[in-house]
Fold this protein.
Amino acid sequence: MRIRTPLKGLILSITVEAVCYGQAPPKTSAGTAPAHANAERAIDLAAKGRCQEALPALMPTLARPPAKQAADKQLEYRTAMAVAKCAMSLNQEQSAVNALFLLKRDFPSDPEVLYITTHYFSELATRASQQLAQEAPGSYQAQELQAESFESQGRWEQAAAEYQKILNQNPSVPGIHFRLGRVALSKGESEADTTEAKKEFEQELKLDPTNAAAEFSLGEIARRAGQWDDAITHFSTAAKIDSGFAEAYLALGMSLVSAQKFAAALAPLEKYVTIVPEDPAGHYQLAVAYDRTGRKESAAREMQLQREAAAKAPPSATSATPQ
């Protein structure tokens, strides 16, 4: 879902003092000391809110190759944090995004990096949605954004009405029938809802035969009804359309296992555990397929991997297994 509910204004109150921690880096060689001193002065200016002065002085530090020494990496970290903060406050979004990507590249597990990345990109999304509403309020893109917002709030009838407005005005817009199908399934699991969803997914594929998600959704409807042949056909097509669609391989393998086509289930399940090795469900299904094809050692290995993956998974984690 592209819509988020950001904490508006929060990111602009995050100060550099809160994130640019640590001692000043020790002096290095004569050639790098002036550059470090300039960066430190710029970081100090940013901390005082003087971003107009600070930002031009900070940018050369980020333009250098990734730091290797600990002191240089600390300076790179603090500089990038200051650039992100100042660039956001000055509406220089490209500079902010560049700084965030640098932080994510060089400090991928840092909690503060993950925290500000979440809030800054949420703020950027909010700004873009506001600009769309101001500059093209009558466009189908603006209507779609509104419909997605209704979806995120569970307001299914309002979402469906917005999507239908788009189709009334632009009947060939791709993706809208798929979203209507998704809304129909979200409303409930009655036969009428399922029939409506199926009709929308099929209509989507008439407009866009490359919509792997629509194929997958039709496969899920068939799988839940125990219609294994139809499920296998749709999941196979989804995987062919999008070779990186991990869930399609799992659902295909599960459907083949349910249809007792164990040998055929091996390839998609092996593909799935390669893509998502941390999901216990994939290892379990593959163990079943190995066992029923006489490959006992492989089955035992997969069951061990299933136990290990289950032990590592947090209690609240949801499996990739289709429900």
In short: Residues 11-135 form one domain. Residues 1-31, 318-323 have pLDDT under 50 and may be disordered. The first helix runs from residue 16 to 19. The radius of gyration is 26 Å.
